[in-house]
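Box S1 | Example of a co-folding query
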Amino acid sequence: MTSPLVATDLVQTYGEGVTATYALAGVSLTVAPGESVAIMGPSGSGKTTLLHCLAGVLPPTSGSVVWRGADLATLGDRRRTALRRTDFGFVFQSGQLLPELPAVENAALPLMLAGTSRREATRVAAAWLAHLGLAGMEGRRPGELSGGQAQRVAIARALAGAPGVVFADEPTGALDQATGADVLGVLTSAARSTGAALVVVTHDEAVARHCSRTVTMRDGRITGTHVNHPAAHDEATR
Ligand SMILES: Nc1ncnc2c1ncn2[C@@H]1O[C@H](COP(=O)(O)OP(=O)(O)OP(=O)(O)O)[C@@H](O)[C@H]1O
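Box S1 (continued) | Returned holo structure for adenosine-5'-triphosphate
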């Protein structure tokens, strides 16, 4: 069953009193199944904090994030960690792959952590690597891959567990522009093919244009929303 991810009135403060920083000052956002949302805004505007709250990595100071009927903040740490493993996928800027493991094992790891047998996890991971253009590179370690290839392994890893939502924080930040556009195209189309929603923090307009919607932040608030692909957006929110 698919359902939206619904964040309501998220507030996140760091520190107290006059020195308190409102990283999030009341953010509400609904991410529909299959929708891709780019989060943009100046440095320090709260993008990564919002991503971490939406993904249940960081419990907000107040407000709620509801996913499949549960408020992530009210789940205990163990249940929240288990839910992150089964329901969410993550892609970061770089450095997320374990250097000593071959590509296929890196991609299979989250599935195994979620309880899938090594054999089945390896089969699914290898199929994803092939789907993302990395057939024949399954045995290479991250140090033997280009930056763009390593990000494809990270995308395979994020999608192998059939997540409901994929969260990506500057996934193309360490790549040149052409490779970054290529990787983002791979990420958005792969997520769409599985029906997963996608939330991407980015500084890059070209990256954001791949997404169905762009949300702009400033000083811990959402200050604007722009629909990039009306058809995709309407389909996701129908
Ligand atoms: N662990 C922390 N402790 C204290 N303040 C923090 C912490 N994490 C973030 N902040 C502050 O919260 C605000 C929002 O930070 P956040 O990292 O979410 O911004 P961002 O938009 O992702 O920035 P960037 O584009 O530079 O990555 C900033 O003012 C930052 O200094």
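The domain at 5-237 is CATH 3.40.50.300 (Rossmann fold). Residues 177-194 form the longest helix (18 residues).
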